[in-house]
UniProtKB/TrEMBL annotation:
The lineage of its organism: Bacteria, Bacillati, Bacillota, Bacilli, Bacillales. InterPro entries: Cell_wall_metabolism_enzyme (IPR050570), Dup_hybrid_motif (IPR011055), G5_dom (IPR011098), LysM (IPR018392), LysM_dom_sf (IPR036779), M23ase_b-sheet_dom (IPR016047). This is M23 family metallopeptidase. One of its GO terms (molecular function) is metalloendopeptidase activity. Residues 181-209 are annotated as: Disordered.
Amino acid sequence: MKGFNFIRRMGKLQNNAETPAESGVKDVHEEGKPRRRWRYWIMASAGLALLTVIGINAEKKYVTANTESFYRVMLHDKEIGTIRDAEELSVLFEKKRQEYQTKYPGALMVVQTEGITTKPDRAYKPTVESEATLKKLDGMLKAYAVGVQLMVNGKAVGIVKDQETANAVLQGVKQHYVPETEGSQGAQLKRTAASGAAASTASKSSPELVESAKIREQVTIEPTKADPNKVLNIEEAVKVLTEGKDAPLLYEVQEGDTISAIAKRFGITQADIFRNNPEVKELTLQIGDELQLTVPQPELTVVTVEKVSEQIVTEPEVVVRTSDLLEAGKSKVVRPGQTGLKEMQYRLTKENGTVVREEWLGQTVLKASLPEVVYRGTKVAMQASGTKAASQASGTKVIGQASGMFAWPVSGATISSSFGERWGRAHKGVDLVSGNRSIKASDAGTVSFAGVQSGYGNVVIINHNNGYETYYGHLSSISVSQGQRLEQGAKIGVMGSTGRSTGTHLHFEIRKNGSALNPMKYLK
């Protein structure tokens, strides 16, 4: 500034200086004197010009020294403030992201910075309001979560943090239906509640082996942006995918179904079923009937194939021997039988824990039963007469006389549905399938019924005259008639699918005094 003052003073001196004419200086030619005043004036002007240049340069240096760089912060091309350093924005963004990440630890948070830019600028002693600008911007910053969207057959069902979490969720859904697994296929499992309790005749069940567990639907995973409140953790996502939402379901009644079993399977009350199906009665429920249900329907269907084994107490055979020491018509147990133990192996196919297919794989005798020995008297009083007495006395076997042992009614059979209230159904017998469709009497006896009965279709009932009866249902044709006496192994008909049947098979029952028994306790 001193330079400028000097220039101003020199300018004033210049402006006040008199020209030669004004100062009364005479022409040197006229008076013959040197032009000293002119030279002084020229030198003063030159000095003044020099000082002006020096002053301007000094001012430029001063302005340059006091010119500062800064940044204008723009939001969609509209200025919202100024900051000293662009790095201040990066610091603010990271600070804000950390705040959101702390608030939503289960999501991967990203600060929304779209539209926020900086424009570099310079000015002489500018007023830069970094603190105010950053505070204003802090209040404007929002964040969103980046994650992955689980898609089931093209339908969005939930958002989770990342691919790793999505994989864990899908594994968790599988584990929901095969709990306590040790990881890989074939690992030992504890029988799930969904499988139902073993039949009352089973004394012990061994762990299941999972052969496979697959999700039926097509599941894809897509990157997405989301509200962090909608990002699910593993437990929440598994719950969403396994519980589902209530929706209408048309259910077809299967063999062995009861209203109570259906209600238990779907987690609803019997009252709900009767309310939606007022025409349905428990005792008149038919295979193939359709029930209108409102039940939770999960987004995913987990199909598991499991091996199951259980131990069943087997009943002893009854060995009948004749004795002429006992009167005809009388019998005596000379050696009580002892029960045995065998292990049954099954392969179960389940959908979300509900058995949809059962396959009997075989059995292993762990302890053989001890037969019961019974003496039947043949001694005939002198006055006794008649064909029956004579045959008994001679030891001739009477046609239709039961042996007390039950043989398989079809050769090469496998079980498609076992006995008892288990796996969501109540079943009074066993369903047998075989390539050989010829059906034989399991033990000797008398045909008490041969014809059509509701539910059984074509059925043969054999009375074994010892308190036991056997039922052979769903036959395509019948080869015997009522009252006919049969030997064990005699052909009685051909396997079919008549009556309330879900396919070609034999429904086989053993009853004692009217009560259904597990045939597997008796079949050898």
